[in-house]
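Lecture 7 notes: from sequence to structure.

We start with a single chain of 98 residues. Read the sequence below before looking at the structure.
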Amino acid sequence: MKAENIYSRKITSTEARKGFIMILKNNLSFFPPLGSSFELLNKGSPKTVAVESYPCTCRGPELPHEHYFIRWNGLIAGNKVEIVKYPEEDNLYNLKII
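Now the structure, written as tokens:
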């Protein structure tokens, strides 16, 4: 599997507590357009998800921006997630939690 077909990250305590996987802005093009649904398989079970966003001022009120995420419950801080994109299947991805 080519590296450009994988998005991975270590889950933070905030992500685990709030039930989401953060998507870094520079990796948005890896996923379907913001708000478009796609299938995310985990252990063979599909779940329909979408990349969502919320406004944030964590860098201060003079630097408003968006944070991007996929809702996913049951994560534990320190988990590593790998999302694999299958180029031969539109809107089909696989999630591995390590």
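DSSP finds one helix and eight strands in the chain. Keep this in mind for problem set 3.
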